Amino acid sequence: MFFGKAFAPRSFRRAEKQARRNVELDQNKLHVPAVDRTFGGTASGSGQTSQKGSVVVTSVGDDDLGPPPVIVAVVGPSGVGKSTLIRSLVRRYTKNTLPNIKGPATVVSGKTRRLTFMECPNDLGAMVDVSKVADLVLLVIDGSFGLEMETFECLSALSSHGLPKLIAVLTHLDLIKSSQQLKEQKKKLKHRFWTEVYDGAKMFYLSGVLNGRYPDREILNLSRFISVAKFRPLSFRNSHPYVLADRMDDLTPSATLQSSPTSDRTIALYGYVRGVPFRPPTSTTPVRIHLPGSGTDSLPVIRMVGISDPCPLPTKESERKRKLSDKHKIVHAPMTGGAGGAVEWDGEKIWINTKGDFTKKGSEEVESDEEVGEGVQMVLDLQEAKSTLRDGIEKSQIRLFENSKGTLTVEDEADRGEGSSKGATRRRVTFEGEPDDFDDDEDDEDDPMAEVEEAELDSYDEEGEEEEEEDVTSFQKRRHRRPSTNSRLNGKEKDDFQFADSDSDIDFGAGGEVEFDEKGRNIPSDEEEDEEEYPEWKKDLASKASDYFSQSLKDQPKDITRLLYETDLDARRIRGGGVVQEQEDEEDDDELFKRVKEVDEDEEEDRFRALPNDEELRALEQDLDSFRYLFITGEEAAEEEGAEKFGDFEDLEKDGTEGEQKDEEAKKKEELERKKKMLKRKFDREYDGSSDSEGDGEGKKDFFTTAKEEISRRLEANRDAFKDLDPTARAELEGYRPGTYVRIELSNVPAELVEQFDPRFPLIVGGLLAHEESFDYVKVRIKKHRWYPKILKTNDPLILSVGWRRFQVTPIYSLDDGTHHRMLKYTPEHMHCLATFYGPVSGPNTGVCAFTSLSGSSSSFRIAATGVVLDSDSAPKIVKKLKLTGTAYKIFKNTAYIKDMFTSALEVAKFEGANIRTVSGIRGQVKKALKSPEGAFRATFEDKVLASDIIFLRAWYGIKPRQYYNPVSSLLLEDKGTWKGMRLTGEVRLEQGKKAPVPLNSQYQKIERSKRKFNPLRVPRALESSLPFASKTKNARPQKEQTYMQKRAVVLQPEEKKALVMMQQLRAIERQKGEKRKEKKGLERERYAKKVEDSTERKREREREAKRELWKEKGLKEKRDKEAAGRPKKRRKTS
Prior knowledge:
Elements: H1 12-28, E1 70-75, H2 82-94, E2 105-108, E3 114-119, H3 124-133, E4 136-142, H4 149-160, E5 165-171, H5 179-196, E6 203-205, H6 216-228, E7 242-244, E8 247-250, H7 254-259, E9 265-274, E10 288-290, E11 299-306, E12 331-332, E13 343-345, E14 350-352, H8 374-382, H9 389-394, E15 408-412, E16 427-431, H10 441-446, H11 450-463, H12 468-481, H13 483-489, H14 541-555, H15 560-565, H16 571-575, H17 601-607, H18 614-626, H19 635-646, H20 656-687, H21 703-722, H22 727-733, E17 741-749, H23 751-755, E18 764-767, E19 775-784, E20 798-802, E21 805-809, E22 812-816, E23 821-824, E24 833-840, E25 847-851, E26 863-873, E27 878-891, E28 895-899, H24 905-910, E29 915-918, E30 923-929, E31 937-941, E32 950-959, E33 966-967, H25 985-992, H26 1021-1026, H27 1044-1047, H28 1054-1126
Parallel strand pairs: 1-3, 1-4, 4-5, 5-6, 23-27
Antiparallel strand pairs: 2-3, 2-12, 7-9, 7-18, 8-9, 9-17, 10-11, 10-18, 11-17, 13-14, 15-16, 19-24, 19-26, 20-21, 20-25, 21-33, 22-23, 22-24, 25-26, 27-28, 27-32, 28-31, 29-30, 29-32, 30-31
Helix pairs in contact: 2-6, 3-4
């Protein structure tokens, strides 16, 4: 029985609240649809549509060009296991071990995804550069130690440049022995990491290291998550092309280096294009790029060309299995050492590394079980070479098969006294140990096809590599079609030929023994058989076959299958699935001859069935024409196809009435369909509220779905526009698309960049847009980081990371108060402010990261501020508060003459009408300049000012930042973390140990102010006479005689005297008691203080004794532990 109330909510308000919360969570998961200009390259990494619907990501336009590799940056402090993690991941994906991680390493992780692993060194500049290009960041944390300062600095740099996908990896967890402590440490680090990033951020745990790698199961879990991760396109990368260089070559001529070693270099950088298409330079549109850390603002690109992909994705034809085969699991790491460290590139040379050495061992040193690789064995054999390579080539012999008895040799016709008519050397292949009658020159002259073969050989020698493949193909055709030559190549003599009784026994016509050219003419063999050695029926066999074949070509009717289905396959091939000879999978692709499966007997019979004559075929063809239109390859299909390509055709021979009737019927049908659609849309609009523009009746689409469909339509239109273009033309118009492996040649590169090149530091080629090559005043909105210990001061040098660049400027901080951009001397606490500096122009909303120093010696937090770019302006409107002071030298009732405020009448004219104010608070206004003294002016006030008042004027003064721009050149130094730009004077004095000079006017002195004397108040007599008596001045004369109260004598009565004496006595007694009481309390305080001091001393003595016992016991324990460590451990018995 079902009880409905058991599953009903107890409160409908709570149910409504829960439903509202669920809807809100679903809406929070949605993002604004972003146009992926990389054509699905880096957004998803595999070119598939995102499942969440947050980003429209479509498949890649061309099948031959996959998405660029996903950059996986491994970031963390020193000694946390970054190299071990990359080595374990590369081993997981490619089964190769990289001995030393240097530079990017690209691997194939799946059929549609490649990964580029890059280790970020413990350098702030490298962290900032990596945060600009990384698609996925593996933040490695030492689990036994906890979060370090570099971890938080990396998080701040990542957040200011877009915050790519982030995964935390905890290592060194095996150092925590207690399981409970390990559990608490994991929980603590997880919640702290969630606080900095977001709740639910992924965190993986690596327990320990086995054989130099992390456990396979833990690495497998991490690699699976990396392989399926999806990425949202960041706005800056979605508008800029960039290349992460994985190889660098110095193209500077050696003569230039010898004459001037410090001259600018020309280098070539290799890498995958990422972001948007990268346009190559042309004669009219030069291209400039920026190398972060190179010390130059921009470098010109000489040449950009796309080259073959060194780490290609498997194609659908080469990889049909669900699992990726081992031959496609490759790694490309030129700076690290290639696959397994076998090849290593150090910038100038290529080194071949092995586990042992290349020293040739004696016979007594060679071990029987030792296996030597093919490459090592080749190098060891070169040590015993007694002749040069040229001598070896001249004495070399060619043997097609390992078991061949004879070898191929080349003989020149000039050696036999015969020259070629064309002047070319004629060479013929012979076998050692065979008679010379097969190479008789007379037979060659009689043979008309011999000259053709020789001409082909001569042309092959002259044209070289261009026609090598074509000639090899023709040579293979001859090889398969000549049984006599094959038999000789297999070591058989002419006496060993087997004779047959009939043509079928020798497989004439089926095996293709006789050679024919494209026109069906016979090409005779190079060797003329001796007539006496062969039977009568084999004489002139080639000419007979040639005649038969040419006659069959002339009389051959049209193929029925080709007429019906428009295919070149015959019935036997269609029956066999389109393939006649299937190669065996286990054979190597590099073998010269491949073994094929034997053809069945019934298939052989099809070749020799009797063909119908010409009359029967013509009759059959007429019958086929009658029902050809019933097939998809008939005339109607052809007409429809032609109409699509070339438009509608009009048959001028047919009557026009039939066509007009068809047109009228089609118009009526279209009109009826249109009315039906209008009625359906009207019904849908009234029934379910769908819009008029949608005729499918699926309901009204929301904004999110409509925006995604619009973006998909635009991307599809872009792909269709460039789909049919030639690759070269498409690269010139659109640029090299993301995923293309390119070679970029740069000029004017500093020589120190090549000499001090370190592959461990990332080398990024950042493409610059047209407006980013100009300089102007840039305004950004920044906020001082809450962990930075100091405040930032105006005009102090500050290192900024904006876009691809890192440079040092002197910004001016300001605040918008509604009317002015008022300059600030210091940055405010916990709020944003504006900063204006002179530098390269960047687009709005570009991330900004600021720091005062790149040195790693600082123990405090190094990132000073973060923010975004607002705009650029050639005339910044920043004003500074200015206070001008003056004094009054002539005072009237409401007017005064002011001096010492301005220096000229022109300045006074500029400030006419400005408001002024005195120290006492009297307000006034500037009126007009005076003739003398210079700079004086007349001003009016609300009241009469005092002669001692100071008049001041508050004004605003426009200022501009200094035009100082210093790009960071850390890559030019041997130690990349020691770069220093412009420093403050105080920092220089501190480094040199000097004290700041104190000006004489800045010293504090005691100020003595004289006391002011005020004149007495004097009232005119006329005014005093009119005042009332209460307001008149009372000028009383001093009293010369004593008054009555002073003169009178006080006589006490006897009772009063007694009372006065008694009161005096009582006061004396009370005073004496108070003194005694005070003395007693003092004695009690002394006794209590002595008691407290004694107890404190006893307590200190007890504490000293306890510490003495504790240290004594600890020392004995350490002594016992050392003695126990010195003794050998007992072995545990194993059953």
